[in-house]
Write a structure and sequence with these properties.
Layout (H helix, E strand, L loop, with lengths): L3 H16 L14 H15 L20 H11 L12 H17 L7 E5 L2 H15 L4 E4 L6 H8 L4 E3 L10 H8 L4 E7 L11 H11 L2 E6 L6 H4 L8 H8 L6 E4 L1 H4 L7 E5 L35 H13 L7 H21 L3 E5 L5 E6 L6 H17 L8 E6 H7 L9 E8 L5 H18 L2
Parallel strand pairs: 2-3, 2-4, 4-5, 5-6
Antiparallel strand pairs: 1-7, 6-7, 8-9, 9-11, 10-11
Helix pairs in contact: 3-12, 4-12, 5-6, 7-8, 13-16
The protein binds pyridoxal-5'-phosphate.
């Protein structure tokens, strides 16, 4: 919970700084009638209560949680000034902080010291920039990705006029390395996207095995780690509990060409904070522009010179910078937060394996658990409908609601787990929970018990 005295401390400090510049007459057009504001604010705050409780561990649905209070303090302080990190002159302190956090992110994934990178408004734009540079490097070549890759890659390839190729996956939906090796022989693919933690299942493509195949074919590798990038902390730490194969693949990210990481997903930040890193800083040459109205007054690199977006919130850089001072990118800081989610997912997977009412769909690799209702004489449509009604009931019950999400899977994958499954439709919805709050570690037994009860009461 946010400490009101710290909020006041931040606003007082910024107000004092503002007052140090001398008094001036506020304009009447900006004056607000107190009653009118009070009323509007009440309406606003009431309407905000229509949200689901993303902050609470009973919310175990989508990738959603509030920023850490430290990020809020950092954001608030800079937002009151509103620097624009387009150029260093738009806000020298937050521009400098952006360079420092980019360095920290590069170190986290073991990219070199001269890594080129910047923050973006989110993962979609970060990936777009990765693909845009890739397209310049390999003009007229295709972008390869699998069906498990985020849906925005296809869309962004269209935006930048890049042809695409669908790459094959193995039985669990990870990129198939042997098939990739064959496919690259055709010579039409210039870049592939690997995913370091898919949005649906939290699975990691076999990056360590993919990189050598791409290297020998002269193919670029962009890592979409919008969601999972911060797991690199665990991958490089011997004490961290993360699968050995998963660690190996995250460590291989160090050899890839570019990576997108979203601090607004696993970095405790409010929305509006993604990042893109390029291992080869010469990628910066593609960004050159000579806009007449920007204000590059120094010879130092301005972040607006290496970013597709123009205005960017200096507050986003400030918030991340402050957060990383108290949550360093190691197991004493952010790593411990991520470890709790991993442990929660493993613990719930064990409970689901034992359950009479649910089956585990996939062993969780990160902090996403997928499961489905166990049913006698099951059909795809029955599992689909029961998943949907459990999802709905769990959320709408007055007594101890829990919030889940549903995910559509190919029925063939379900059939591997339920051999006598009647395939009466090609896809079926199952249940999915993202355990991205560390409090899930102790809350999982309660979530599980609640779902078991609901499964029993739901005819
Ligand atoms: C969330 C996500 C994205 C999109 O990022 P936004 O920040 O939502 O724009 C892309 N790829 C993956 C793997 C994601 O999880």
């Amino acid at each position: 919970m946010i400490d009101a005295s710290r909020l006041t401390h931040v606003t007082n400090a910024i107000t004092a700084w503002q007052q140090s510049w001398g008094a001036y007459e506020p304009h009447p057009s900006l004056q607000v009638a107190p009653e009118r504001l009070a009323e509007a604010l009440d309406t606003y705050l009431t309407r905000l209560q229509g949200n689901y409780p993303f902050f609470h561990p009973r919310y175990a649905g989508q990738m959603l949680k509030p920023p850490h209070p430290v990020a809020v303090l950092g954001y608030l302080g800079a937002m009151l000034i509103n620097p624009n990190n387009h150029a260093l002159d738009g806000g020298p302190p937050t521009g400098q902080m952006e360079k420092e956090v980019v360095k920290a992110l590069a170190q986290m994934v073991h990219f070199p010291d001269d890594t080129l990178g910047h923050l973006t408004s989110g993962g979609t734009v970060a990936n777009l920039e990765g693909l845009w540079v890739a397209r310049h490097v390999h003009l007229d070549k295709k972008l390869g990705f699998t069906d498990a890759a985020h849906y925005t890659h296809g869309r962004m390839a269209e935006v930048i006029g890049m042809d695409t190729a669908r790459l094959a996956v193995d039985a669990d939906g990870r990129m198939d390395v042997a098939a990739l090796e064959q496919r690259l022989k055709e010579g039409d693919i210039g870049t592939i996207v690997v995913t370091g933690g898919t949005t649906g299942f939290g699975t990691v493509d076999p990056i360590a095995d993919i990189v050598p195949v791409c290297r020998s074919a002269g193919v670029r590798v962009h890592v979409d780690a919008a969601y999972g990038g911060f797991y690199a902390i665990l991958a490089w730490d011997d004490t961290a509990r993360l699968g050995e194969e998963t660690k190996r693949h995250y460590r291989a990210v160090a050899k890839c060409d570019s990576i997108a990481i979203d601090p607004h997903k696993h970095g405790l930040q409010p929305y509006g904070c993604g990042s893109i890193l390029f291992r080869d800083p010469s990628a910066g040459r593609f960004y050159q522009h000579d806009s007449p109205y920007t204000y590059f007054t120094s010879d130092e690199l301005h972040l607006g010179e290496i970013s597709l977006e123009c205005s960017r919130a200096g507050a986003a850089a400030g918030a991340l910078w402050l957060t990383l001072q108290v949550f360093p990118l190691d197991m004493t800081g952010l790593g411990a937060v991520l470890q709790a989610g991993i442990d929660a997912a493993q613990q719930w997977a064990d409970l689901l394996r034992e359950s009479a009412h649910f089956d585990l769909f996939m062993p969780p690799e990160l902090d996403i658990v997928t499961y489905f209702p166990a049913m006698a004489s099951a059909s795809a449509s029955a599992i689909d409908q029961r998943s949907q009604s459990l999802f709905h009931e769990a959320m709408h019950t007055d007594d101890e609601p829990v919030f889940l999400s549903v995910l559509r899977v190919e029925t063939e994958r379900l059939q591997r787990l339920v051999p006598d499954l009647a395939i009466d439709q090609p896809q079926a919805r199952i249940l999915r929970s993202v355990l991205m709050k560390p409090e899930h570690e102790t809350y999982v037994p309660m979530l599980h018990r609640r779902l078991e009860t609901l499964a029993q009461t739901l005819a």
